[in-house]
Amino acid sequence: MFLSEILMKENVVASINQNIDKLLYFIPELKCMMGFHEKESNYNLDLWNRTLLSLFNSEDDLDVRLVILLRDIGKPFSYSTRMGKDLKDHAKVSAKMSYDILKRFDFSEVYIQKIVYLIGQHNKKIENRFIIENIELARKLYEVQCSDDLPYNPNYFPKRKRYLFGVKEKIKREEIRSFY
Q1: Cα 53 from Cα 112, distance rounded (Å)
Q2: How far apart are alpha carbons 129 and 82 in whole angstroms?
Q3: Which residues pair with 43 in a beta bridge?
Q4: Taking the model in full, what pTM does it have?
Q5: d(CA 157, CA 165)
Q6: Alpha carbon 71 to chain centroid distance?
Q7: How many Cβ atoms sit within 10 Å of the Cβ of residue 48?
Q8: Is 143 left (phi over 0), alpha (psi -120 to 50) or beta?
Q9: DSSP state at residue 31
Q10: Domain with residues 2-179, CATH architecture
């Protein structure tokens, strides 16, 4: 499966850039992310370059990289230039679009549901209850959110850093608790 091969290269950004024509052929929705800027945003880059920077900063985990690649794919379709903000929850739009995209690649239904769930949750706070109920998914969601830090506007970064540090500590505590 070529998508997995592209995303699991050590230099994932170079791999994407070398295979961009093939990637856009199978996932034409990615074109809408290229050059897409939000007016009122905590980011300094366009949506596509933020995605690439997040992928560059990510762990070698296919689940995490698929979520990062597709998490904001619905943003251009849920954004109003007139209002300058999301009109709908872009995570829901991205999850729906990602379901259809992942079906094209013949991923199993169980796997697609996991990735779509993570995409739907990617911009939500990771609550204690979620960490306790499903530490594996909480850890993946944490990795997605950590990879998303680099493109943030430096003025917003300290808040994110405190939040993510707190989540990391909660995950560590739960891992220790569940070990005993």
Answers
A1: 24
A2: 38
A3: 152
A4: 0.90
A5: 12
A6: 4
A7: 17
A8: alpha
A9: G
A10: Orthogonal Bundle (1.10)
